[in-house]
Fold this sequence. Notes:
By secondary structure, the protein is α+β, with helices and mostly antiparallel strands. The chain has a domain of 230 residues: Vanillyl-alcohol Oxidase, Chain A, domain 3 (3-Layer(aba) Sandwich), CATH 3.40.462. Helix content is 24%, strand content 22%. It is built from 15 helices and 20 strands. The chain has an 8-stranded antiparallel β-sheet. A hairpin with an 8-residue loop joins strand 1 and strand 2. Helix 5 crosses helix 13 and helix 10 packs antiparallel against helix 11. The longest helix is centred in the middle third of the chain and has 14 residues. The chain starts with a strand and ends in a 7-residue tail after the last helix.
Amino acid sequence: MEVDRRRKLLSGWGGAPVSSSDVVTVTPGRPGSDGRPGSDGWQGWSQQLRRPPEEGVIARGLGRSYGDAAQVAGGTTLDATGLHRILEMDAVNGFARVEAGVSLEQLMAASLPLGRFVPVTPGTRHVTVGGAIAADIHGKNHHVDGSFGTHVLALKLGAPGATLELGPDRDPEKFWATVGGMGLTGVVLEATLDLPAVETSYMEVDTERAADLDDVMARMEASDHEYRYSVAWIDCLAKGASMGRSVLTRGDHARLGQLSAKQLRSPLRFDPRVKLQAPGYVPSGLLNRFTVAAFNEAWFRKAPRHETGRVMPLGSFFHPLDGVGGWNRLYGSRGFLQYQFVVPFGREEALREAIGRLSSSGQASFLAVLKRFGAPSSAPLSFPSPGWTLALDLPIGDAGMTRLLDGLDELVTEAGGRIYLAKDSRMRPELLEAQYPGIHAWRRTRDALDPDGVMCSDLCRRLDVSGRHGGVSRCRSALSGDYRHDTTDTPPDRPTGMTSMADPAAERDGGGAPSYGGTGEGHAQTREGDRLERRSR
């Protein structure tokens, strides 16, 4: 076992906020005393948990949460990317046992040739299993298959002072506190997942244009149940009669009989590639209301009015942005935030009001996607609940954004909805308990797992998720103006130094899904794809 410790500046995929902590990387060597691969790596984690710094410990991967869920200012961040072994793959019974640092891409590459696929994938495959559990991630299939945590058969948790075997039927209270628990119950070390069967690595996709928000909601409500996957792109800058105009894309895994002769030569082929690289430097403000409005117009007109049965590679359907290396650089040195909320069915007026405010404000969301959630999981802090969910990417620095989003927070809360913690970087802490009423039960379970409050993150302190910080934020939000960035970017494959007056010994790093990030094309390339390029000034 090798242990490396160094001070780094960390941020999420959006580039803000930034904080400094000691990053500890444990690289497993030979098998441990129990003979299992990587078990000496688990011992390395437990050593860090036995001697935690006062500011706390959080696990982290490669940077795909957008906010501050996988960093802890002044504390210790555990880099889990070395724990990336697939321990068991059973294609007949459809399950895999993996270490928590295994990415969804790595799992797809191993399972698809065997006719199996991951149960849930978000908009990027560069997310690890540990992060997927910690955030209880969702995908385009939530209305059918639920969230990631509902497909976890068992997990191993490294809690402070103990290593626990948990599952939905084995100590379920602690299991569900860990699912969606944002890495605050301990370090997920290993998980067993069910893997659905597929005949091909292609998708059969139907696409249609909707004239406005009511039109797309009516189409989704009427026929989403006919599709396993469904998502609508929304033009949040369209106004008047066109407000909420959309491109609705739905599909399912293609069967062998739907493939062309060429595709049938390798029906389970999975070869994801980065087709383009974002420029090393992009000035802030490039994505503004004018450029985004032009893109939205072109994107809407390019989409077919109604197309059925198109067969495409699953990467193009699920992860189009993964084809652009370092796409977060397109937002410039200030970075961006992703804002996602859900409002219950029956409260559609709140969704209409939210999109109306976005449209009137002129805030430029390059990406805006609408989905329908189905049944919730049993996890108290899980985000998905039955209703409509809208996700937005917003450049930091636009005038009026703070006021707009604060207003949307209140609108969503009053409608009985909630904000996605895995993407949040600026919500006010007093709204947390109203949005997540199960948090009191979660805190009791968390206190049993971690009575000394070892596990902590900037998100935890900012929102007082654990209830241990007196409701007083110790961390600044991404929009507070207290975080400053250089006006130049560094290519993603180069380690970054830093020139911060606050901490000249730290080096700049970036990325981290809640608890964990994921790997790219092979573990070595993960660093390149997920490293942020901006340095703190």
